[in-house]
Amino acid sequence: MSSLKFKHEEKDEDLMPKALDIPDDSSDEDSESSREKNPPMDGFAFLKSVMKERKRIADVHTAEIDPKKIKTPTCLNSFAGCGRVKPSVPDEFMPSAKWQNEQVSEFSDTRLKLTRHLKLVKAKQEFQPLKLPDKDNEMLWCLFCFGKGLWEEVESKRKSSEEGEGSPTMTDENVSESSDASDELKKEVLAKSETGTPPMISVLLSMPVHVVEQILEYQVNWVQATGWRSDYGPWLFALMSRIEKPLTPDTGSILRDLALFCSQERWRLVNTLASKSQSQEETTSTKQESEPDKGEKSKLPEDDTRKSGSDEDKKSAKDSEENGAISAEAEAQFAAYNLFICLVAKYFNQGDLADS
Question: Cβ of 89: how many Cβ atoms within 10 Å?
Fold first, then answer.
């Protein structure tokens, strides 16, 4: 049986033949030092110099780094300091798993009903979209949703923050003239916008998805600037019901900002209530220490004791009334914070922000 044998010049290249056959330079008369001094005259000489340089270099190199010169990364600390970490609260202020599942189910049903209604309206071709402000005009959208009171508050908060940061002011005359004209136009618009518009179905159906995402970003910025207000809840819930899944990176970041804001406000509210209860306990303890003995109380006239007792009853009733109002308001705020944290974490798949 005959067989074919191939002659290879190098044992390392048994699988494929050489692309360029470079002749061996062992018989050259020129020394290696003279070759290094003179530049290569042709392509073969250049390849020979490269091959020699490769033989002088080891296959594996290890970098020797001084551990003292290595700096510890500080990006996590700065990231946490910017409010990007969800603070923890006691379990009594967190919603139960059953409550969260119920809210997610109801929110999913609301989105499904709204989507079906939108498809039905488009199929019948009876709905005429409302004329809404331009999506790039933040002021008009704020006036449309909440009225001039909120926009004035947002502007004052932003101006105070810019003054605190020491941002430079523009002193050009043309810019000042244009700003005066825009201020006059703004005053006219503000005068006509006393109250806002509730998030009705006709308004939501007139807003495309990209407009919904932009208005949601505006409203999250307003919430962060002014703090929580009860007017934000219906609009945020309505806009979140129109967001499409899967989320875009920008929309996901906006929703995470909302959930983190709610978690931080919930943590502040818990600390406020704890400090109030502690101060009330201290005042009651001081009152008990300052009260006179029973023997001294018996010496007081009968009319005076009745008068002091009626005054104390009125005061205690007033205090209980105030505490009840504060507790009801705090309970409503806790419900709103827990709801938006739950929807962002459970429905929009931001599991690291969930309340476990």
Answer: 18
Tokens of 194: 């006393």
Phi-psi region of 40 (alpha: psi -120 to 50; beta: other; left: phi over 0): beta
Mean pLDDT of the chain: 78
Largest CA distance in the chain: 136
Please provide residue 77's backbone torsions phi and psi, each rounded to the nearest 5 degrees: -65, -45
> What are 263-311's pLDDT values in tens digits?
999 999 999 988 888 887 777 777 666 665 544 444 445 554 444 445 5
Q: Which tokens belong to 275?
A: 């400090």
CA 147 vs CA 135, 143, 151, 194, 333: distances in Å: 17, 4, 7, 5, 22
C-alpha distance from residue 229 to each of 103, 202, 266 (Å)? 21, 24, 13
- For residue 12, the model assigns a pLDDT of 52
With beta carbons less than 8 A apart as the criterion, state whether 193 and 143 touch: yes
pLDDT digits (tens, 9 = 90+) for 136-163: 999 999 999 998 889 999 999 998 888 7
Query: What is the per-residue pLDDT for 58?
Result: 82
